Amino acid sequence: MPASVIEVENLGKQYLISHRSSIGGTTLREELTESVKDWGRRLLSPRAQRSRSSLEAFWALKDVSFRVEQGEVVGIIGRNGAGKSTLLKILSRITEPTTGRIVLRGRLSSLLEVGTGFHPELTGRENIFLNGAILGMTRAEIRRRFDEIVSFAEIDRFLDTPVKRYSSGMYVRLAFAVAAHLQPDILVIDEVLAVGDAAFQKKCLARMDDVARHGKTVLMISHNMLSIESLCKRVIWLQAGQIREAGPASVVVGQYLQTASSALSERTWPDPAIAPGNDEVRLHKARVRPAGDAADNTVSVSRAFVMEFEFWNLRPNACLYVNLQLYSPHGLLIFESAPVHATQWLGRPFPVGLFRFTCHVPANLLNNGVHSATFVLVRDENVILHREVDILVFDIEDSNEYRGGWLGPWDGAVRPILGWDTELVEPRIERTRTDAPGGDSTA
What we know:
alpha+beta; 8 helices; 33% strand; globular
């Protein structure tokens, strides 16, 4: 029986969250002034409470226990804020747990964020040797893998350039190449591969599969359920910092997709002081519903529907833009859309107030299954003010219309009704007849 290379027992991570009593945004000067006042109050009276904030204990992880055997590829899934990245950071020794313990048997290499473990002032070449040394490898061991790392990362021309001048794509390529080629016993990968292009992601997935086939252990976080199901035999589903389910990948992913739309087809944040956003924009409401005056709120393949997004603009004369990304049940980006034809507000300054943007999706475009939407608020065409991932998660129900008698599953991210022509090209087909063995053939 393979040895357990990762043992996690009753793991917990607690953070203290500060809740401000002030509703409006504050300047740096105000923050510094208040900090000095709080310091003075605590100096004069150690038991004095902070005037503008209260602390709440928040458990990012609680009572998490599992084991990973040598050579396993385990996926970790869950909604944003479920505790996935916190778990990997604890396993990578970036942060310490509040409770419980972990046991790692072997050398662990992690890729959690773009540029983690890189020194921006050092060149790509120097960072390869630096990361290898951090992993405990000798200079000779790193040299043996050096050419393979550079070839995989495709950064030959920029090898002696400081990595602070790298694009995010170059950063990811080099970071993954280093993490995956320096012979780790355990490879830990967060969602950073979403930054790379499609060709590079495919190459990374192939490399991870190769690492696993050579008896190494892989833990990976991804919102792409296709990657999870194709690479992982076992999946751990985290919800609210605890393990909701763990088991075979196909079973757990199926349960996750079925329950993901439980209460996220309509969301409201009534108080702008605590709604998602910042001192420029705050979200108010998001919902998906059938188009028109439908008798029920069922969204199906054969019905047009709308996605509505409301937000407060808090800054006078802001030049705002919105962007919508819709993802398939397996986490693939189906389309990205923006109101580029809504000329009433396009390019105009926005006054302070509550705005609603509505996206109209035609019938017979998308396939059935649980879909998710990401909403992005942008200022001045290129400054991202706020990005709300999974702002809506909703189920598009199947429909028996336009199936042509087919009752089985309909594959694909989209299911459009396309124009088809059927015609008889020739009224009869001339066949070549072959007589008995040894005989002649005639037409």
